[in-house]
């Protein structure tokens, strides 16, 4: 029902209560559109995205609360506010303090009750500015200045973690974590030979989750966070390189897009591996 309401075809059988081929195809189409891993299965990440995609601006009153509102309606709101010059930060789909501040500034500008509630009156005012809103397309995330800083900091994030999270084992007996860690150490050594500063998000024996590793990068005031991961495949002949940068529906990291393309170009050129292109999957959480 949710997939159909989002505009995805379920075939001639339509809603029949069975997870068949057409339903799987619809799930894959949804995952592709949302930048998720295209598996055709409803995992926790896909289900969360399906639920969030079902909200449209005006379907509920939005305001700051704990836990915060999440959904496509929040993404649309953030995009609208940013397009109109009211800085709500990254278009994350999470109604946070910065979003509320932007809402209050908009309400004040429009002579509305400055209560931070996104209800019918606030949405009506936003819709009245539809022409201005439609001129705004994708919103570039404001990012830290790198070039002018005395010594920019690049933080390397090795995937998995030794020894508790080794990842998969390769054909030569090495684990994903071992290879990622060696790559990360080599990158830090190369960075030290330049005018840049380097740091790493993990320590051997101290396994941090993704959120904790992002916090480490932030505490180091890193300008760039590069996560190193290996993909696993049952086919021993599978090979190639791919890079990812942050994108969330209506927003994307412009410098992240440029950097990931530069890295990918050099990887396929120097390592002579197939180009698996640059992607924007939502499940890769980068610098927070």
UniProtKB/TrEMBL annotation:
Gene Ontology cellular-component annotations: outer membrane-bounded periplasmic space
Domain MurNAc-LAA residue range list: 154-280
SUPFAM superfamilies: PGBD-like (SSF47090), Zn-dependent exopeptidases (SSF53187)
Gene Ontology molecular function terms on file: N-acetylmuramoyl-L-alanine amidase activity
Stretches assigned to the Peptidoglycan binding-like domain: 2-47, 70-126
GO biological process, one term: peptidoglycan catabolic process
Record's keyword annotation contains Disulfide bond: no
InterPro entries referenced in this protein's UniProt entry, alphabetically: MurNAc-LAA_cat, N-acetylmuramoyl_amidase_3, Peptidoglycan-bd-like, PGBD-like_sf, PGBDSf
Alphabetized UniProt keyword annotations: Hydrolase
Family annotation (Gene3D superfamilies): PGBD-like superfamily/PGBD, Zn-dependent exopeptidases
Protein name as catalogued: MurNAc-LAA domain-containing protein
Organism: marine sediment metagenome
């Amino acid at each position: 029902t949710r997939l159909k309401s989002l505009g995805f075809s379920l075939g001639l059988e339509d809603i029949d209560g069975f997870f068949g081929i057409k339903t799987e195809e619809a799930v894959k189409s949804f995952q592709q559109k949302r930048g998720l891993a295209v598996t055709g299965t409803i995992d926790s990440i896909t289900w969360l995205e399906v639920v969030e995609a079902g909200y449209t601006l005006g379907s509920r009153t939005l305001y700051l609360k704990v836990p915060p509102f999440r959904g496509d309606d929040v993404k649309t709101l953030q995009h609208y506010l940013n397009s109109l010059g009211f800085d709500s930060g990254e278009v994350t789909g999470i109604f946070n303090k910065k979003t509320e501040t932007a809402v209050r500034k908009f309400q004040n500008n429009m002579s509305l009750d400055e209560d931070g509630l996104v209800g019918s009156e606030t949405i009506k005012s936003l819709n009245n500015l539809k022409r201005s809103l439609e001129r705004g397309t994708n919103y570039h995330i404001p990012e830290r200045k790198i070039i002018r800083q005395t010594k920019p900091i690049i933080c390397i994030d090795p995937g998995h973690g030794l020894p508790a999270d080794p990842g998969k084992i390769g054909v030569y007996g090495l684990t994903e974590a071992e290879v990622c860690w060696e790559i990360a150490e080599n990158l830090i050594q190369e960075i030290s030979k330049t005018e840049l500063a380097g740091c790493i998000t993990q320590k051997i024996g101290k396994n941090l989750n993704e959120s904790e590793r992002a916090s480490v990068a932030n505490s180091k005031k890193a300008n760039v966070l590069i996560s190193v991961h290996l993909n696993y495949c049952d086919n021993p002949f599978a090979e190639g390189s791919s890079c990812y940068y942050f994108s969330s529906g209506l927003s994307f990291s412009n410098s992240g897009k440029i950097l990931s393309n530069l890295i990918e170009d050099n990887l396929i050129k120097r390592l002579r591996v197939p180009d698996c292109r640059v992607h924007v999957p939502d499940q890769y959480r980068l610098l927070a």
